[in-house]
Amino acid sequence: MDSFELNKILGALLGTCLVILVTSFAAHAIFAPVKPEKPGFEITVKEDASHGGAKEAAAPSEPIEKLLQTASVEKGTAAAKKCAACHTFEKGGPNRVGPNLYGIVNEKRGEGRGFNFSAAMKGKGGTWTFDDLNKFIANPKGFIPGTAMGFAGIQKDSERADVIAYLNSLSEHPAPLPTAAK
Predict the structure, then answer these.
(1) Mean pLDDT across the stretch 104-132?
(2) Closest Cα to residue 174, out of 90, 72, 105?
(3) Which of 16, 84, 137, 156 is in the most buried spot, having the most CB atoms within 10 Å?
């Protein structure tokens, strides 16, 4: 190959690069992005001034005692699959993002299980009663503000009762279900 052909090839490459560069400058001049004064979107949240802006736990519409009378362990098993992303349910099962939930009913809250609970969960204290489980599963961050659990909650009363009945069945000695007359 002689020098004339090499010059033609290099000239073609250089010309292509020059055309791309000029096209890029022209495109940026024509379609210049407009940057907002304040980046992002403002999210407005209505806060209740009577509680200092803290989110209160939404009270479930029906008492858990009444809901558990018609609860189904089988439906609860299916509904609890959404919890399986973070929790295990078998006896002696490993902890994941959240603790193993085998035998959780009437157990101490924020203790044991070989899990590092959040300070808010440890600070709440007490035991997991049917009513507390109902309130927590309905609105975790409302029942225990500052909890590390990122789940939004189960809003449907009957589905929550099914999950609680399932959790209660996960024990060598399940707690007796409360009666509606309680």
Answers:
(1) 86
(2) 105
(3) 137
